[in-house]
Prior knowledge:
CATH architecture of the largest domain in chain B: 3-Layer(aba) Sandwich
Distance between the termini of chain A: 30 Å
Strand order of the largest sheet of chain A: 6-5-4-7-8
Shape of chain A: globular
Oligomer: heterodimer
CATH superfamily of the largest domain in chain B: Thiolase/Chalcone synthase
Structural class of chain B: alpha/beta
Radius of gyration of chain B: 19 Å
Number of helices of chain B: 13
Number of domains of chain A: 1
Order of helices and strands of chain A: HEEEEEEEE
CATH class of the largest domain in chain B: Alpha Beta
Strand content of chain A: 35-45%
Helix content of chain A: under 10%
Number of helices of chain A: 1
Order of helices and strands of chain B: EHEHEHEHHHHEEEHEHEHHHHEE
Largest sheet of chain A: 5 strands, antiparallel
Bound molecules: coenzyme A, zinc ion
Number of strands of chain A: 8
Largest interface: A-B, 40 and 40 residues
Structural class of chain A: mainly beta
Radius of gyration of chain A: 15 Å
Number of strands of chain B: 11
Number of domains of chain B: 2
Distance between the termini of chain B: 19 Å
Amino acid sequence: xxxxxxxxxxxxxxxxxxxxxxxxxxxxIMGTRCKTCGKLYFPPRADCTCLKGNIEWVELTGNxxxxxxxxxxxxxxxxxxxxxxxxxxxxxxxGPTVLAPLSKDITEDEVKSGMSLKLIPMELAGGRVIYExxxx
Amino acid sequence: MSKVAVIGVGQTKFGGRPxxxxxxxxxxxxxxxxDDAQISVDDIQAxxxxxxxxxxxxxxxxxxxxxxxxxxxxxxxxxxxxCASSGVGLRIGWSFISSGLHDVVAVxxxxxxxxxxxxxxxxxxxxxxxxxxxxxxxxxxxxYFALYARAHMQTYGTTPEQLAKVAVKNxxxxxxxxxxMFQKEITLDEVLNSRMIASPLKRYDxxxxxxxxxxxxxxxxxxxxxxxxxxxxxAGLGLASSPMTLTSRDTxxxxxxxxxxxxxxxxxxxxxTPSDIDLAEVHDCFTITEIINYEDLGxxxxxxxxxxxxxxxxxxxxxxxxxxxxxxxxxGHPVGATGASQIRTLVKQLRGEAGETxxxxxxxxLAHNLGGIGMYCAVTILKA
Lengths: 136, 384
Ligand SMILES: CC(C)(COP(=O)(O)OP(=O)(O)OC[C@H]1O[C@@H](n2cnc3c(N)ncnc32)[C@H](O)[C@@H]1OP(=O)(O)O)[C@@H](O)C(=O)NCCC(=O)NCCS
Ligand SMILES: [Zn+2]
């Protein structure tokens, strides 16, 4: 298990949340929930801020609504060949939010705040795994 | 508890400085501030060196800078809060003095960004978001603030023209500030037709990478009164944070909660309200940020920041002049130096030394310094 394959580029490989990457490869979007206070986390966290926590993994449906987005034409050096790409923040039906790329299938004219989207796990060349927002 | 005064200010010209190293630009600002305060280097009992250290090839820069400024063996250390580094440094300097630990302290902010290409800068800056969940998707600072811009437009109907008017204003005032990076006015059309960087933010909606340094000399009341007839007092301070990840913030994404909290504290401590402020320096890293700041600082109603900008209320002679030194957009934004540069502008104004852009009878100034994607915020209120 590792976390080093998550993302287009990854900066964190060692974490208590390595299972997230494995589940993503298996097609599941996982969050965590505190069994003590009930708080649901996405992105998942290994620890709850209530400090009394007892964290468990929970699968999310991936169904969400777009909050805001941007098309980036200027990228960090390691994303130079990806431009233009769209990034968005969406809110899951279950409550938490996610910052993720919008699928290239969605054009800027189609994007509207409030539109329904689905966060889909995806494998990239080279075995990397990410998620992206697509039309449901 | 002693009152704390700013008794000296200095700043390099902002912009590309391929001719000088970090310690040399720090020296320029420091020398100007020491001369301005009319004190000697030996009067300075501690130095606080402020920068976003990830730009520096030099690790732990306080070491070389304190040495170069002649400030050994006094205490020195680095303060990092990205773009709010020297705003935070000022607060630490204030604490040193008001606690009685030191009488005179130098706060030095600096940054050399142009040794890196803009794409490399965004590589570094993109990692000022959470590297576990956000940077892996190619986030950039313009991209983050673009998400706020879009949300603000969607909720309040803010327009690209309203954003553009902030850039036009700040470029106009930069032409009156010899220390500003850009010395040319721009038109509304130029802003609107500039190339898209991160929609809806275009080139002129974004600040530029810049080199520069700024320095503040702070002193306790007794010392200040000895060396100057016109000390400027630190009357209010506020410092707050917001979650770093956008996903842990309020889902509206159209306000920076750390600003509102820091401002509330600073207004309370200074015993003033937004309508008492004669001029303000606010953190306009992007045009949208200036608009949101108006709202978070209470200069206008929530959601009305766009029209507040477009109606000219923040020009000299308007309800509250904002960034009449060019702001980050046109003065330049060498991140570690920005907070101290804002204070320098206010000090000049409150002493009546601002020349062509002098706000008549300016008595109270506010500086707002935001770090990273709006995760740290320092608000400082100065009184003549
Ligand atoms: C917007 C951005 C991506 C553009 O970068 P870029 O493509 O490298 O190029 P620039 O537009 O800065 O520079 C191109 C040229 O235009 C000039 N220029 C840029 N802005 C200008 C302005 N407002 N007025 C006049 N000239 C300007 C530059 O000096 C440069 O001239 P040169 O080619 O002779 O060197 C980059 O400036 C950026 O990342 N800005 C944001 C920085 C940031 O995130 N700071 C932290 C904020 S929280
Ligand atoms: Zn809990």
